[in-house]
Amino acid sequence: MKLKNPNHSAPDMAEAMQSIRPVICYSPETLPQPDMLAMTEARKLAVKTADITIAPRDAGCIEVPAGAFFRILSVDGPQVGDLNLWNAHDLTERFYSGKTRALHGTHVSTGDRVWSSIPSMRPMATISDDSLDWYGFDEFGGSVHDVIGTRCDPYTGRLLTGDDYHYCCHSNLTRALASYTGLPLHEAEVHVHDVLNVFMCTGFTRDTGQYFMKASPVRPGDYLEFFAEIDLLVGLSACPGGDCSSEHSSDTASCHPLVIEVWDPGEPARKRHQMPQVNAYSRTHGIS
Fold first, then answer.
1. Do strands 47-54 and 196-204 pair parallel, antiparallel, or not at all (unpaired)?
2. Per-residue pLDDT at 1 exceeds 80
3. Does some domain include residue 53?
4. What is the pTM for the complete model shown?
5. Which residues contact 35 (CB under 8 A, 6 or more apart)?
6. pLDDT tens, 197-243?
7. Which of 14, 64, 93, 219 gives a 20 to 30 Å CA spacing to 54?
8. Residues whose CB falls within 8 Å of the CB of residue 231, separated by 6 or more in sequence, listed in order
9. Does residue 115 form part of some domain?
10. What pLDDT score was predicted for residue 176?
11. Burial of residue 1, with CB atoms counted within 10 A of its CB: 0-12 exposed, 13-18 middle, 19 or more buried
12. Residue 72 pLDDT class (50, 70, 90 cuts)
């Protein structure tokens, strides 16, 4: 956080420096674009083949084959969820929130892709539909579905409060991944990573640049839907902050379940889908 009262005086050129127009770091127009029309046609063929209910202050995992869809659904009341994605065949290839943010912005919606970690760095999934796309950005700079926040975790909680809290999203996802894969808890934990905050309404304060949260606009029936670009293992935690209107990592916030549904357009449609190849960079890093 920047100092309100700087220790150093501004140079004569300060105003000119501050008035320089910004430049977008990465142009998403040069990225390979998803075929949204083909996705829409495939979705018309899809039938629900699986679902899982995520209990409040808990997490769960479900597999989704490449070429199918998965929908995260609000069912009983306002609730946000912390999403992890892994390559179903290789947990070391996982969702890369920082690069997704750099390529698409702080908040994602229909047509945006979620990218995997280096060195694979390829699309893992494409957002195919978002019932909260009407929200946009509010007067505070807040929006939904952020790739800013990390996830509530027991280590930060310990630093801030001196107490242990075991039902934060990091711990929820760790338990869920260990249970699903059979990995020991400490081995599963290293695969839990920064998240896509589904339904969470967040932004940065304009005066201090601090990460903020506010009551989510999500209502029962709202959803965020993805098209699986590769075979995925999906992990989701129903955050102990509920709608995150006041706090997270809480035993007192009103919390509700979330549902993940898998929608399969059928084997012929899935076979027509071409999975993105891993990143073509040579990995020589300047050494021949």
1. unpaired
2. no
3. yes
4. 0.96
5. none
6. 999 999 999 888 999 999 999 999 999 999 999 999 999 999 999 99
7. 93
8. 63, 64, 65, 66, 87, 88, 89, 275
9. yes
10. 98
11. exposed
12. very high
Name the pLDDT band for 174 (thresholds 50, 70, 90): very high
Amino acid 54 reads: I
Cα distance between residue 255 and residue 269, in whole Å: 37
Tokens in use for 234?
Answer: 């999906």
Q: Which one-letter amino acid corresponds to residue 165?
A: Y
Domain count within the chain: 1
CA distance 2 to 147: 22
The C-alpha atoms of residue 226 and residue 125 are separated, in whole angstroms, by 6
d(CA 220, CA 237): 17
Distance in angstroms (rounded) separating the CA atoms of residues 126 and 115: 9
CA Rg value for the chain: 20
Answer yes or no: is 189 within a domain. yes
In which domain, by residue range, is 83 found?
47-272
pLDDT of 273 over the 90 cut = yes
- What is d(CA 117, CA 236) in angstroms, rounded to the nearest whole number? 18
Beta strands per DSSP E along 55-107: 59-64, 69-74, 81-87, 90-94
Specify whether the CB–CB gap between 195 and 83 falls below 8 A: yes
User: Is 277 buried (19+), middle (13-18) or exposed (0-12) by CB count in 10 A?
Assistant: exposed
Q: What average pLDDT does the segment 144-163 reach?
A: 94
Residue 210 belongs to a domain: yes
